[in-house]
Amino acid sequence: MANEYLLNENAEVVVYGVEFLRRLDKLLPQFEKRRVVNYLEWCWFFKTMLRDLPDPFALTIFKFYKTLNCRPSFTSSGYIMTF
């Protein structure tokens, strides 16, 4: 369950990755909303559902993302894909 936070107009918020947000703000309007939603859904699927696969499957996915020039890394909870 997600946490809900209420902020007043004077609240200070620290944002890391400001340049990323600026680029994202320019990039998103170039695509249909449905396409962006589909992309996010598939990213969620791969990151949450496939990370717990047995090693032979995880290794296949690792190699797949490596060919796409993503940045796969291995953690104690499995392979994590960075886009």
From TrEMBL:
Keywords attached to this entry: Hydrolase, Protease
Reading the lineage from the top rank, the first entry is Eukaryota
Q: Does the keyword Hydrolase apply?
A: yes
Its Gene Ontology molecular function terms? peptidase activity
Q: Name one GO biological process term.
A: proteolysis
The record's section on InterPro entries has:
Peptidase_M13_dom_2
Instruction: State the name under which the record lists this protein.
Output: NEDD8 protease Nep2
Query: What organism, scientifically named, is this protein from?
Result: Parelaphostrongylus tenuis
Q: Which gene encodes it?
A: NEP2_4
